[in-house]
Every structure is written in structure tokens, then in C-alpha cells.
Amino acid sequence: MLRTIIAREFLNNILNLRFMIGLVLCIIVTVACIMILAHDYRQEMKDYSARMNLQDEILDNYAIANEYRLIKMVRPQKPPERFRPLIIGIPGDESVGFFDDNPLPILFPPLDFLFIVTIIMSLLAMLFSYDAIAGERQSGTLRLVISNSISRTKVLFGKFIGGAASLIIPFILSLLVGVLYVSVNPAIQWDGSAWAELALLTAASITFITLFYLLGLMISTFSRYSSTSILNCLFLWVLLILVIPNVCPYISAQLCRTPSIKQTKRRDREIEIHSLKVAREYMKESIKKFKLKYGTLFSEFESMKFGGVGFLIDAKPEHEKAAQQRAEADPEFKAMMDAFREEGKKAQKELIRIREESGMLWEDLETKAAEQTKLAKNLACISPFANFVYVARDLTGTGLRSLDYFEQTKGEYQRRQFHSYVDKKIDDAREKDPEFEEDSFIDVSDRPRFVFKEEALKDKLSEVLPYWGILVLFNVVFFAAAFAGFMIYDVR
Amino acid sequence: MLKSIIRKEILSNLLSYKFSIIVILSTILILVSIFVMYRDYCLALENLDILRAESDDDVENIPPTPLGIFAKGLDENLCRSWELEAVGVEISSEKQKSLNDLFKLFTAPDLLYIIKVILSLCAMLFAFDIICGEKETGTLRQTLSNGLKRPILIIAKWIGGFTSFILPFFMAVLLGTIFVTLSPMVDMNAHNWVKLGLFLLSGVIYLTAFFSLGLLISCLTHRSSTSLVISLFVWTILVFLIPNLGNILARQFVQIPTVQQLALKRERIMNRARFEMKRIPEARPDYKEREEVLLRRTIAEGDQLDEDYRNRFNRLVKVSQNITRISPAAAFTFLATDIMGTGMAEERRLKRAAQQYRDIVVEWYTDENRDEESKQPAFNYQRSSVKEILGQGGLSNCLILILFNILFFTGAYVAFLRYDVR
After folding, report:
1. Which of A344, B28, B160, B280 sits most deeply, having the most CB atoms within 10 A of its CB?
2. Quick one: which of A379, A465, A378, A389 has its CA closest to A119?
């Protein structure tokens, strides 16, 4: 009997106008979108290779032996995401931080697979289910069905399975056509993990679509008329898709305030100035004390710029040499020099102690920012839309996590591989040529290259599973509510 | 007769479940939006104070507009602080507003967004069953069996339906505006009031287009369920699909390098200049002259690069605007953000002003007769006036919206004249 209900629901839906419109819209939009984005991906790849060439040209021709500037010259480039033909990634800070960036996506977020699932498919799902119960009650067929020896549980299951199947068909069909285009496109090379990610993305999308189907079904079981049911469905759809996710970051920004970076930077500078002032004062006091204690001997030491053992006092190599020779010849001078060195160390310790506060400031900023983001993320979880966006983006490497991952790998390359390479290179150059200056050209053609590798699927999965779990939970809750509602539903 | 039908339409709407749900939704949303965006504006102002306190930096920025509370548009982009470089203009490296990355994922829930997305849907929900719904219940047949003319009926239905829809919207906006303007943080001058008025007017024109479209669909269908399905699909296409698709479609016609590539090209020019500079012996008598020649050449190369990029970018924006304007939602977005001074026109204007300012600073810097103690010329910028906005394409966007209105209403009118009421 269950099979009969499923078949009936399925046939009923596919012969309906909304199925035809949904199917046509889905296929046209998905295929057009994937084709355009695949072309876009080719352009992005060209741009990426042009950027790589430019980077090589700059380093090959204009690299200098200044470690700091050379490291700044290396800008590891992020390749376009491999899922770019389906989902447009979020621009990183390095691209929104340009004065000339393209602001159009702020006004009109670009169309991609995420949009198709979250807007078109969710709306379609509700349109398929809003009258599944209330509509049948109005037409009188529900009463007839229930009057037979069939349990309400079976009816509800049948409606869910049949309706969801008729909904998923246009979706899978359009996705298949799009993916076929991707697979025959020579510019797009997907490996096994990419196909696995696509399979998982499809599964997550189905979870999301069935969730909205169940929400519609639930509302239908609590409504007497389909006109009321559709209004309630649309009301909830607007709240869940269009309102809650967009409002949450702003609410969290109000609830969990962070100091601005500029403010922190200014405070940092104040601390730096204060620490220097304190250290200088300390050294001044020490000099006064030493003058009283050692008299002319200390004046002689002072003329040697304290032999470089003082803190915050510049001494030339000849001063250091002279003080060293004097200390070797006179034990009293040596004792004074050692004592003064200790004073310098104390001043330095004081400076470091004060500057620790500055480190805490930055740490505090980072912690508060992380708290704010976490709060916004958790608040937005009330909406299935936000959960699906986290799952889809993090799974396909087009989200915030992928940006962090890129920054992390970039930092590791700059700090470890390139830094040690540069150190060695500069040391070698200095060894060969003692006249070698900081702004002299240095050949870095044999430098280690930055290669960006996608994060392992296992790591991505561990991140997205909780959000996917919430989507499943929503499914369970909505089905349970629909079940409870249908059990007490007055079919007359 | 016209008056009675309008009255009947308003009353039947006021008593409907649809009206209650839409009124609740729109009122809550508008008030929440205005409050949330007001707090966001206060944060931006606090940030500006901190930025301005940094007097030792040659960093420029413009203050956020209070109109951003209603239509944020590109205001965050416009208010970023930037500084002049020998080649190009660069954003001051610190992030300006927040470290919360989630802002990147979701859209700002301002009044513009609510009108564009949610109220347009509400307008269609108000109109989708005006004709076919009455046909289903049989009241349309009865009404027309009297000596009532069809043109009067459809006009009255339009007026009655739209009035009952737009009144709650105005009430909510009025409440929100009173709240915002009473706040000491918001300084609205006469220009801003005119702009806000024009923004609301354009919002009404936009919503009438969707209401008329709903009516048209209602006149073309015989069952309200069919009308609803078609209305929702058309709404999805017009509000989301065309504007968002147009954005990526435009990139297929205009090839434009990424900003990262542009930055690398600038870096190449700078590094080349640095190396060439090193090759000039400081002892040479013409060192200064050669240094200046090199500097001017570097600046000219940078300017050429920027100009090429800007030309391509402006072409991209134009193509994108032309494609997306097929949708009233896009025309309204362009019009509303331009009116509020947070749109593409303002962005283009600011970039042009920054470029001109750069030329002035370069002239000042390379002037041989410059007093060594003189300060760098200040950057002064005023957002566009209403007259400028209307001249810069605002009027054409407004005309597009009016055209949509005429088209949809005429369509509905013609369809209703031939409508089978049985």
C-alpha cells in the first residue's frame, strides 16, 4: 500500500504545472550557471598563471638582499577553487583590500549552485508540499484515503517519499547535465577527492531540500486550508532564508563588541613609547649611580659608548673593541662593565615586561573577534540556510575555512621554507662578497616554490559534520512534528 | 461605484489572514532592520573617530552617510581609509570595520534589501489572487453581471489592493525613521531628507511594478494556485536570477584582470624604478633631474595601467548594468543606492576624485618652488547632490521602473478585458 501511495504522490506531482516549471527552471538555470562559471574558471586560471609569471618576473629581476623586503615581495597566489564552476568562493582580504576592487558582487551576489539550492530548490520544495495534506482535505480525497484500512503513518511516509522523489528528480537531472559539462571540459581537472566532495555536496543538498519539503508538510498538517498553509510556508521561508542569516552577524556585533584594529594599534604604539621611556629613565638613573660610584673611570667608559653593553645606547665596533681591551687590562674596569651590563639587562627586562601588555592587547582582540564570529555562526544555525552554506562552502573549499587554510599554508611557506632559504642565500652571498649590501640584487631563481594543496577531505568533513547533523536534526524534528500533526488531523 | 469597489477591496484585504501575516512580517522586519543598521552606523562613526585621531598618517577617508542605515550599498567600501602611493591608490592595510568574517557570507539586512526582496514578494502575494481568486469563489461573475465596466473594476481593485498593502509599509518606515532621526548620533540635513524621500518614492514605484505584475499573472490564470506558482517563479527570476546572473554574465563579455594581478603589475613598475634609480650615481651633477624624470615616468606608467584597468572596469559595470536592468530589482538597486549616495555612481566618483587628488599631490610634490614646510594639499570630498544623481543615470533607472509599471499594468488591463469570468 505504501508503494501505491508513493507512486500516486509521485505521479500527481510530476503531472503538475509546478513540476514542469520547476524542472525547466532548474535545468536552464543550473546548466547555464555551470557553463558560465566554467568559462569564468578558465579566465581565472589564465589570470592565476599571469599572476604567477608576474611574481616570478619580479623575484627573478628585482629581488634584493634585504630579508624583510624580500619576504614581503613574495606573495603566494591562491589558485581559483576547483569547485569554482559550481560555487563562487568568498573573496579573501587580499582582494577586498584593494581600492580598485569590483564592488558589483556586494550589490548582487553572483549566481551559483548554492543559490540554486538555497533559493530555488527550497522554494520549490515548499511549493510541492504546502498542500500535501490541507489541499487533499479540501478536495475531499484525504477522507477517502483514510476511510480505507491504511494507517496514517503510511500515508504520511508515502507522501514524504513520493513528494521528495518528485522534487529531487529535477534537481539531480540538472546537476547531472551540469556535471557532465564539467567532466568533458578539458580545462577542469577533478581528481577522486573532488568527485567525492561533489557526491557529499549532493547528499547535503538533498538533506537541505528534504528539510524544506518536510517543513511544508508539517505546516500543511497544521493548516485547514492550502491558502493559509502557503502563506505560513512563505512567512517561514522568508524568515529562515532571507532574514535570520543576514541579521545574525549584526546582532553578534552588538552583543559581542571588539575593539577596532586601529585602536589596538594606537594603544600598542603608546605602550611601545612608554616602555622605551621607562627603559631610558632606568638607564639614566643607572648612569647617575655609576657616575657617583666610579667617577672618572665611568667617564672613560662613557666615552667608549659603554662598549655596547648598555641598553638603548648605540656603540660602534671600535667602541666595543676599546672597552673590551680596557676591561682585559683593568679588573676594576671589567667589574664596572659587568655591573653596567647587568643594569642594561634589567632595563631590557623592564621593557619586555611592559610590552607584554601589548601582546595581550592583540591576543584580546583576536579572542574577542573569534568570539564574535563564533556567536554569529551559532546564532545563524537557527536557520537551515546558514547550516547548509557552512557545509557546502567548507566541503568544497570555497568558504571561510578555506581562506584560513590558505593563509595558514601561505604563512608556513613564508615563515619556514622561504625564510630559511633567504637567510642561507644572504649568508652565502655575504661570505662570497664582503662588500655585499642590503639593497644589492640577489639571485633567487632556485627558491622553493609555493604550491597550494587542497585541505584533506577528512579534515573538511570533521568541520562540516556538526552542521550537517543540525540539518538532519531539522529533518527529524519537522517530520516528527508533521507526524504528530497528522495523527490528530481532522480529515473532514 | 469606483469608490465602493476600492472600499470593498481594502476592507476585504484588512480582514484577511494574508494581510495580518504580511503586516506583522513587514513591520517587524523594517523595525529590526532600521535598528540593526542604525547600530551598525554608530559603529562606523566610532571607527571614523579612531581613524581621524591618527593624525600622523597621510590616510584619507570619508565619513559614513546616515542614509546608509536605509540603503547600505557600497558605503563600507566608500568609507575605507586609503593612502596615495607612487603607483596607484592603496587601502590602508588594516581592516576597517570588524573582524567578524561572517559578514562576508550574508547580505546587509537594510531597508533596501527588505523592499527589494521581501516586500516585492509581499506585493505579489497581495495581488496573485485578485482576479483569479474572485473567479474561483464566484464573486467576480456576480460583480460583472451588474452594470459595472471592467476597466473601472480592475482600476479599483488595483487602487484598493495596493493601498491596503502600502499603508502598513509606510507606518513601519515612519516609525523607524522617527526612531533614527531622534537619535543624537544621526545628523540628517535637508539634502538627506530629500534623498530619503526620493528613495521611498522609488521604493513605491518598484513595489507598484510588482503589484501590477501579480495582477497581470492573476488576470492570465484561472486558478489561484497556478497564479501563485507562476508569481513565485517570476519573482525568483526577477529578484534573484537576472541581477545575479547578469553580474557573472557581464564578465564573459569584458575581460578584466583581477585586482591581485593589477597589484603585481604595480609592484613590477615600482621595483623596476627602484633598480633604475640605484643605477644613477649620486655624484652625477644631473642626479636630481634624472631622479625626477624617472619618478615622473614611473607615475605615468602607473597611471596608464590604472587607466586601462579603470576603462575595462567601467565597461564591465556598464555591460552588467545593461544586462541586469531587464529586472526591476536591479534597476531599483542602482537607483536607490545612487540616490542614497552609496551606489556605483558614488563609487566611480570617489575613485575619480582620488585620482584627481593624486595628480594634485604629485604636482605639489614635484614642484621645485614648493615651500619645504608646506603641508600636503587636503582631500575634500562631498557626496553627489540629487541633481547630479539624476543626471548620472538615476533618471534612466527611474524611467525603467515606470516603464515596467506601465507594461505590467497595461498587460493586466488588456488581459482582464478579455478574461473569461465564468
Report:
1. B160
2. A389
Q: Which amino acid is at A187?
A: A
Cβ of A376 within 8 Å of Cβ of B93? The answer is no
To test the contact with chain B by mutation, choose from A15, A262, A267, A383 the residue with the greatest count of B C-beta atoms within 10 A, namely: A262
- Chain B, nearest residue to A57 by Cα: B268
In chain A, which residues have their Cβ closer than 8 Å to the Cβ of B315? none
Residues A278 and A403 in one domain: no
H helices of A103-151, where? 104-107, 113-115, 122-129, 134-139, 141-147
For residue A215, give the nearest of A491, A490, A466, A481 by alpha carbon: A481
Report the gap between the CA of A156 and the closest CA in chain B (Å). 22
Domain boundary residue, one of A338, A371, A404? A371
For residue A225, the chain B residue with the least C-alpha distance is: B17
What is the CB-side half-sphere exposure of residue A376 using CA atoms within 13 A? 28
Structural domain total, chain A: 2
Residues 6+ apart with CB under 8 A from B143: B5, B134, B153
> Lowest mean pLDDT: which of A22-26, A43-47, A466-470?
A22-26
Give the 3-state secondary structure of residue B44.
helix
Report which of B317, B378, B376 is spatially closest to residue B348, judged by C-alpha positions: B317
Instruction: Mark whether A175 and A313 lie in a shared domain.
Output: no
B378 burial level (CB within 10 Å; 0-12, 13-18, 19+): exposed
The pLDDT tens digits for A191-219 are 888 999 999 999 999 999 999 999 999 99
Domain of residue A240, residue span: 2-259+380-487
Domain's final residue, options A339, A371, A403: A371
CB contacts < 8 A, A to B, total 254
Q: Which residues contact A454 (CB under 8 A, 6 or more apart)?
A: A82, A193, A397
* ipTM value: 0.78
Do A133 and A87 fall into the same domain?
yes
- Assess if residue A345 is contained within a domain: yes
**CB B109 within 8 Å of CB A243:** yes
**Same domain, residue pair A19 and A141:** yes
- A492 within a domain of the structure (yes/no): no
Domains of chain B by residue range? 2-256+320-417
Of the partner residues B33, B241, B317, the one whose CB lies closest to the CB of residue A29? B241
- Measure CA B328 to chain center: 12
Tell whether B225 lies on the interface with A, counting CB pairs under 8 A. Answer: yes
Whether A312 and A211 share a structural domain: no
Spatial separation of the C-alpha atoms in residues A394 and A5, rounded to whole Å: 38
A360 plus A401 within the same structural domain: no
Q: Compute the C-alpha angle B332/B336/B337, nearest 5°.
A: 120
pLDDT tens, per residue, chain B with 422 residues: 778 888 888 898 888 888 888 888 888 888 888 888 888 888 788 777 766 665 555 677 788 889 999 998 888 888 887 777 766 666 664 444 455 566 666 777 889 989 998 899 889 988 988 899 888 888 888 888 887 888 888 999 999 999 988 988 888 888 888 888 888 888 888 888 999 999 999 999 999 999 999 999 999 998 888 898 899 889 988 988 888 888 788 888 888 888 888 888 888 888 888 888 887 777 777 777 888 888 888 888 888 888 888 888 888 888 988 888 889 999 999 999 999 999 888 888 888 888 888 888 878 877 777 777 777 788 888 888 888 888 877 888 999 999 999 999 999 999 998 888 77
The Cα-based distances of B325 to A481, B244, B317, B396, B408 in angstroms read 43, 11, 12, 10, 16
Which residue among A88, A123, A252 places its CB closest to the CB of B100?
Answer: A252
Say whether both A317 and A391 belong to one domain: no
Nearest to B230 by CA among B117, B130, B323, B125: B125
Please check whether residue B333 is in contact with residue B321, taking contact to mean a CB–CB distance below 8 angstroms. no
Q: Residue B38's closest chain A neighbor by CA? A: A250
